[in-house]
Design brief:
heterodimer, A: about 450 residues, alpha+beta, Dna Ligase, domain 1, 5-stranded parallel beta sheet, 15 helices, about 30% strand, globular, B: about 80 residues, OB fold (Dihydrolipoamide Acetyltransferase, E2P), 3-stranded antiparallel beta sheet
Chain lengths: ~450, ~80
């Protein structure tokens, strides 16, 4: 069945992105919102909007009952969950289907299987994909954890089986550390995720974060090449690129094929991302996890492949077979995305909600700004700090960096602090320009380079 | 006796305790010293401690746990 109407069960820039894709396909849009979000751009753009509760996420965007009621009352065919909130909640996917609507994403069972990090790791092993050295599945006792570490060595990560998005991770360097942290990690995981299960993964000291975009229709699976997302602060991506420019061609081929193998193993339906650590020195990649949703950084893939991933999600969920063949997916040029957050880089990235006074958005060839901002809009304090994503494409990476710099200089937001200044410093950095960075680069760089830049500016002022 | 106000420096969601399992930083009627943490404000998924900038007795909270607050809103009053 072709989808004719959709409820957008999210907010912010991704709600705007979903509405634009739906409108391009002639689909009627219904936007849910909390009491704090009545003025948001997605509400203004949607055909209809429904207030589903108070500002606290658990009383609105995380309230399955309220979202399902709104969808039923609006009489929509389908629900798009975006990212975050209920996007990777298998019970929500089931509830949408039980209410007679289409969930735009994989089945509840697939979400639960791949959302359990230990089960997902087993799927990868079964599909012949290398995983980070560590425990085979869950580790129940300290003795079992010690036995794993005797084989693999330190440093080791203790991870929550039900964790994700960088949450529920501890790094241990010694046996004493392990003995202290293991029981704490289990208690913390039980409290945070309702599941105290833990597993172990070796820390790859100089790793890149590389991930492969996949699209599946339940039968066929294709990949749309990879993204490089190593510039992270507190395990949150800050800057993403596509393709991963330093990846040798033979490794790229194996990496992308392995992602397709993982997705095929579970008859994947929808858009998804298979995440890996890439050890540049060893030329080896290791599976980390599968994200069963559209990702924040999906636009860099769109910019180099010309594929509209969100529109493809609508088509697949509507029952269409994949219309894109693998041989038709080609990389053209290079793309970079900068996440523009309402945070003050000069004050330790303190969150900075507030009202947008003026907004200037750069335009031009290869420049795209996905955002929920408009002049006069007040960014509420109740949700994440992402204001928008500046995405730039050019024929080569160097040309892309030049174009990005111009675009960043042309992006002007007044009324609150943003991370535009951080990106202006990054685009000028020699290491970033050479592509010489890894997942722990940015935090160290902020201490040594960026704080100096900020201090100098203060002195001059 | 005068009443002194403790205001939230930031907009967000106010919490009386560091987690649902732990007791409140201050109970109504407690004495407060300048610098004491009286609650947390969740702003854009990060937590900031709210420290009292005054000393006083018999603190009375004007905002409930998990309630939204505006920047500058009075969270509690103490007597001096």
């Amino acid at each position: 069945m072709t989808i004719k109407s959709v409820l957008v069960a999210n907010r912010g820039e991704i709600a705007v992105r979903i509405i634009r894709a739906a409108k391009a396909l002639g689909i009627r849009t219904v936007q849910v919102y909390s009491a704090a979000d009545a003025d948001m751009l997605a509400v203004r753009l949607a055909d209809e909007a429904v207030n589903i509760g108070s500002p606290a996420p658990k009383k609105s965007y995380l309230n399955i009952e309220a979202v399902i009621e709104a969808a039923k009352a609006a009489g929509v065919d389908a629900v798009h969950p975006g990212y975050g909130f209920l996007a990777e909640n298998g019970d929500f996917a089931d509830a949408v289907v039980a209410a007679g609507m289409i969930f735009i994403g994989p089945s509840g069972d697939a979400i639960r299987l791949l959302g359990d990090k230990v089960a997902a790791r087993s799927v990868a092993v079964g599909a012949g994909v290398p995983t980070v050295p560590g425990s085979d599945g869950r580790v129940d006792t300290l003795a079992a954890a010690r036995a794993v570490i005797e084989k693999t060595g330190f440093p080791m990560m203790i991870k929550a089986a039900a964790g994700g998005g960088g949450r529920g991770i501890r790094i241990v360097q010694t046996l004493d550390d392990l003995e202290q942290q293991f029981p704490q990690a289990s208690a913390e995981a039980a409290a945070a995720f309702g599941d105290g299960g833990l597993y172990l993964e070796k820390v790859i000291t100089r790793a890149r974060h590389v991930e492969v975009q996949i699209l599946g229709d339940g039968e066929n699976v294709i990949h749309c090449f990879e993204r490089e997302c190593s510039l992270q602060r507190r395990r949150q991506k800050v800057w993403e690129e596509a393709p991963a420019f330093l990846l040798p061609a033979d490794i790229r081929e194996k990496l992308c094929a392995s992602a397709v193998a993982v997705a095929r193993a579970v008859k994947y339906r929808g858009a998804g991302t298979v995440e890996y650590l890439y050890d540049e020195d060893a030329g080896a990649f290791y599976f980390i996890e599968v994200n069963t949703r559209i990702q924040v950084e999906h636009p860099v893939t769109e910019m180099i492949t010309g594929i509209d991933l969100v529109q493809e999600m609508f088509r697949i969920a509507g029952g269409a077979a994949l219309s894109i063949r693998q041989e038709d997916v080609r990389v053209s040029g290079h793309a970079i995305e900068c996440r523009i957050n309402a945070e003050d880089p000069a004050r330790g990235f303190m969150p900075a909600p507030g009202q947008i006074e003026t907004l200037e958005i750069p335009e031009g060839e290869g420049v795209r700004f996905d955002t929920m901002l408009y002049e006069g809009y007040t960014v509420p304090p109740f949700y994440d700090s992402l204001l928008g994503k500046l995405i730039v494409r050019a024929d080569t990476r160097n040309a892309c960096l030049d174009r990005l710099k111009t675009a960043l200089e042309g992006l002007k937001v007044t009324g609150l602090a943003t991370t535009i200044t951080l990106h202006l410093a990054l685009v000028d950095d020699d290491n970033v320009r050479r592509g010489d960075y890894h997942t722990r680069f940015l935090e160290a760089w902020l201490e040594t380079h960026f704080s100096l830049t900020v201090a100098r500016k203060v002195e001059v002022a | 006796m005068t009443k002194l106000e403790i205001r939230s420096p930031l907009p967000g969601t106010f919490y009386r305790a560091s987690s649902p399992e732990t007791p409140a930083f201050k109970a109504d009627g407690n004495t407060v010293a300048s610098g004491d943490v009286i609650g947390l404000i969740e702003v854009m998924k990060t937590f900031q401690e709210i420290a009292s900038d005054v000393s006083g007795a018999n603190i009375r909270f004007l905002v409930d746990n998990e309630e939204p607050v505006m920047a500058g809103q009075v969270i509690a009053e103490v007597e001096q």
